[in-house]
Write the structure tokens for this entry.
Amino acid sequence: MLRLSLPARLLACLLMLATFLTVAQTAADAAVPDRKGWVLWNQTAGAVVPTGTWPAPSTVTPTGVGQYQVKLAGQAAPGGVVHVTAIHNAPHWCQAVNWFPSGADEIVNIRCYRAGGALDVTSFAAFFVSASGGPAPGPYGYVDSQPNGALVSQYNSTGAPNTSTPMGVGAYQVKFPGLVAGGTLDGSLQATAVNPQQGARCKIRNWVSSGAGQTVNVLCWNAAGAPLNTRFTLTYQYKVSLYGAAIPPKYYGYFLNLPPVGPASTNLNSVMGLGANTLMPAGLGLSLITFPRIAYTPNTVQVTAHGSNSHFCGLNTFWTNSTSGPDLYVRDVNCFTNAGAPVDTGFTVSANSIH
């Protein structure tokens, strides 16, 4: 049996330690995201809802009629993207104004409007993620695009550069190269307008999945329903959560309503697989979405309208968690014309847990 001298044994131990540290650092570098957070604001109670807020100490402060400042505790990070969904039984939407680190916290300013374009109070769900460095466990990416297509920040799990190209007033084509999912329509998207000057909304017109990646067409509108050049955020996910991680979290899902429902590849349940989530019409402009077995809190839900018109969508009330399942009920997605009339139209919905 070969016996190593004491110096040789020390050297071998140091080499093993160096290898361990390298592997650990590589794993840390590959972690996605760097920071994340979300809040569920209950306008009636004037408080955040703990089951829809992470990290727990995060807060919302009203700063004016329909204006809110979100503080995501300990989640300060450069760049990233914000999404926000209004929660009201009347036609409302919310948009981002800006976001930035402040000490250890991430600050997100939000404005919310009612149909017609007046600022108005409403409940809402807001979401933030910032990612960099290593790859995500699946095809995942985002952009924060200026009105001229210049990117404020971006992430692509393959490391390839994303692009945003203006295609006319209020129309953009975003490409996520390398994010290959395998079909011709895969995964899910969320879009949010970013505008500090006026009411603005953005939605998904359509997207195409191919061997080159994802090509997404985005449309943006002002409060009058006219096409608008505006800053916006866009996030793509396929078999990962909206913040880019998977297992954990074990519990997330997404769903496309065209209408009717999209292909199974746009309908994912992390527990039950593709095609497991369901939609039940609940009245004109209302859709009940059930995500079986993923109702683990704290969780968040985001909604974006889909189609070529100025319709918009939000949530009628807070999502609920079944006591026997546990199933997550989005009751309901509500959609409206620009004038505020209920309408059956397309949308994407993404549900995500911290667990």
